[in-house]
Write a structure and sequence with these properties.
695 residues, N-terminal domain of TfIIb, seven-stranded mixed β-sheet, six-stranded mixed barrel, binds iron/sulfur cluster, NADH dehydrogenase activity, iron-sulfur, 2Fe-2S
Length: 695
């Protein structure tokens, strides 16, 4: 503060990192941020923050920022700096040439959770209206797409059921496949406060996370399951509930679909679904699993919070369904202190999904095949829309390798680093004729790009983000875009160059269009957010002015809650003599996702590289000590990581993060994916680990 001077004014905005969505005051001197101060009126954070939001914003003005549009004929050519008009014209001509030769579905786009709602909406509109295809997908494909499927099928909509504040009324907290202490620190503090007040805690995770035994809290039960066996655990918990008379019969009779419940009850009661039957599969002692199930069912208020350890599996959607089944059977949806809550990893992953960036859905989770819904967008946009769902990200890669997908508009997402099986992704990207990257930095994907369009950071944006509790908050511009244009303006210019002009003077007008076309957003406006601080969707005439704090009160969005049988299917990634360990992945407090932002801040003084955590027994077997280097190989590839010997791991399981491109964590993850959504199975990879010399 002394070096930068005293602030002259402050702008309230929203953190660009995790799905907690903390409000901040950017204290400014001219166009320079002096410091970020947690906003005491922010409903998601109540004046708190973590080290990412508070200190890791310097990347916004980092010297690595791309501030000049660039083009090149071939990816082996050097970049050539050009004007915005030339770069956008170059991109439009290439896309049009591809479509003329290979058909309109030979191109597509990918949006990102780093984009505002308004930016995501515009990108999907460009793809559908200007390109004339539904080949649009979002980075949520690789994180919470199974949440969309599983919660949609059972409850009727894809969103956390509660506000964060609701955890203060939980008697039992179940955390599955999530490490909020590192990934959602401000919400973790609320959770820990409630646990210190006496709430009981169950942690279901292969790793002994901080919640299991920190100086502040201790879990009553840690179900240290083997990676890939989530569905066996949740089905066995359901078995206990059904066979020990713990079903909330009155709740189920009133709120749930009877035929599907009866079929599910018969299914989970089978002896092959008991904790004892699954003990060897999951590695969880049957008695411990029975105790956890009884605790959850007894509540009286039990809340489930889950993360990517649930979704990023070949059975990710099945597991989300299993969680929803259990919550319905025990009557744990629709009041304070209960619910099913996906902890969204990224600031706007909820909004990115809400805004129609999946290839089968228009904004508001409405299927593209619904003629009435499609008709409303066709009337507003003045185009005819295809009723056929487009390609998902992995399908785009497959189509590229088959010579059928040639052009990609990629906004704010580094697919070359973040998607699994890096070699496969690189081959697909290399096969395309036009890749347009719109981003802050020359990321890994940019190595395959033909056009670079400078993106803008959250400090340069006007718009909204939607957090994990469906809370829509304003992102306010605190400095002009470094490259002169905001992301929404770039998308508009590209659309114009493609022959489909859009006419917005400000992102507020984009939100007005979203509200007009999306019933769950009908009551959302910048004026209301200005007045109330934030609103939660659904927000329309039938909700409170500030929207809906709690979902499924009195009834599920889909009507009767629906059960589905959750047959456990072993992962393809199984240990054998060649690959005797299971690798799983997670995050650390100081870094964020692929690290493009946090690696360019002082946060790297705490963690400057990805490491491999390994149990002492497995380390000793391999002659590995703390700080040694280990070669990790899987059926997809191999990489080298520094070793941390840790009792946080169980024997047979190793763990790493994915924040640094040099470590190549995704070189070793495979392209195995969720059966319903193609979400990659990042959390289970059979590997071998061996001591190697320093790279
Ligand atoms: Fe809040 Fe998450 Fe930002 Fe930390 S990273 S300040 S918890 S929104």
């Amino acid at each position: 503060v002394i070096e930068l001077g005293q602030p002259e004014h402050a702008v309230v905005t929203t953190c660009a990192y995790c799905g907690v969505g903390c409000g901040f005051k950017a204290e400014m001197k001219g166009n320079t941020v002096v410091r970020m101060v947690p906003w005491k009126d922010g409903k998601a954070n109540e004046g708190h923050s973590c080290i990412k939001g508070r200190f890791a914003w310097g990347y916004a003005t980092h010297a690595d920022r791309i501030t000049q549009p660039m083009v090149r004929e071939k990816i082996t050519d050097p970049w050539r700096a050009v004007s915005w008009d030339e770069a956008i014209g170059f991109a439009a001509q290439r896309f049009q040439a591809i479509q003329a030769q290979h058909g309109r579905d030979a191109v597509g786009g990918i949006t990102s959770s780093r984009c505002t709602n308004e930016e995501v909406y515009l990108v999907q509109k460009l793809i559908r209206a200007a390109f004339g295809t539904n080949n649009v997908d979002t980075c949520a494909r690789v994180c919470h797409s199974p949440t969309g499927y599983g919660m949609g099928q059972t409850f009727g909509t894809s969103a956390g059921t509660q506000t964060f504040a609701s955890v203060a009324q939980a008697d039992v907290i179940v955390v599955i496949g999530a490490n909020p202490s590192d990934a959602h620190p401000v919400f973790a503090s609320r959770m820990k406060r409630r646990i210190r007040q006496g709430a009981r805690l169950v942690v279901i995770d292969p790793r002994r996370t901080e919640l299991v035994d920190s100086p502040h809290v201790r879990a009553d039960h840690h179900l240290a399951l083997l990676p890939g066996t989530n569905v066996a655990v949740i089905t066995a918990m359901a078995h206990v509930v059904v066979t020990e008379g713990l079903v909330n019969e009155a709740y189920v009779a009133e709120r749930c679909d009877t035929p599907s419940f009866q079929a599910w009850r018969e299914f989970v009661a089978r002896p092959e679904n008991s904790p004892e039957a699954f003990e060897a599969v999951t590695g969880v002692p049957a008695a411990e699993l029975r105790a956890a199930a009884r605790l959850y069912a007894s509540g009286p208020n039990s809340a489930i919070y889950y993360g990517l350890g649930v979704t990023e599996h070949a059975q990710g959607s099945t597991m989300v369904i299993g969680i929803c089944n259990l919550a319905m059977a025990c009557g744990m949806v629709g009041r304070e202190g209960v619910g099913v809550n996906p902890l969204r990893g990224q600031n706007n992953v909820q909004g990115s999904c809400d805004m129609g960036s999946f290839p089968h859905e228009l904004p508001g989770y409405r299927h593209i095949s619904d003629a009435a819904v499609r008709g409303s967008f066709e009337a507003a946009w003045g185009v005819s829309l295809s009723a056929e769902p487009g390609l998902r990200i992995p399908n785009m890669f497959e189509a590229a390798l088959a010579g059928q997908f040639k052009g990609l508009y990629c906004v704010g997402e580094d697919i070359a680093q973040s998607d699994p099986n890096t070699q496969h992704v690189a081959a697909a990207l290399s096969a395309m004729d036009c890749i347009v990257v719109q981003d802050l930095f020359l990321n890994e994907t940019a190595k395959f790009a033909h056009v670079l369009l400078p993106g803008s950071s959250f400090l340069e944006k006007d718009g909204t983000f939607t957090n994990a509790e469906r809370r829509i908050s304003r992102v306010r511009q605190v400095m002009p875009p470094l490259a002169g244009l905001g992301d929404w303006e770039v998308t508009m210019k590209l659309s114009q160059a493609l022959g489909y002009p859009m006419h917005y003077a400000h992102p507020e007008q984009i939100m007005q269009e979203i509200a007009a076309l999306t019933p769950s957003f009908a009551g959302v406006s910048y004026a209301k957010i200005e007045r109330l601080g934030s609103v939660q969707w659904p927000c329309n005439d039938s909700t409170d002015e500030a929207g809906t704090a709690m979902m499924h009160v009195g009834g599920f969005v889909r009507g009767k809650g629906r059960f589905f049988n959750t047959q456990y299917v072993p992962s393809d990634e199984r240990v054998n003599a060649r690959f005797p360990l299971l690798l799983t992945t997670g995050r650390i407090l100081s870094q964020y996702n692929v690290g493009a932002q946090t690696r360019r801040t002082a946060n790297s003084q705490w963690h400057a590289e990805d490491v491999l955590e390994i149990h002492p027994h497995d380390a000793q077997e391999r002659g590995l000590l703390d700080g040694d280097w280990a070669g990790i190989s899987s059926r997809a590839g191999q990489t080298v990581l520094r070793v941390v010997v840790s009792e946080r791991m169980q024997p047979g399981v190793v763990w790493t993060t994915f924040h640094f491109p040099e470590s190549g964590a995704n070189v070793i993850t495979t392209d195995s994916s969720d059966w319903a959504t193609n979400c990659p199975e990042y959390k289970v990879t059979a590997v071998q680990v061996a001591k190697v010399m320093a790279p």
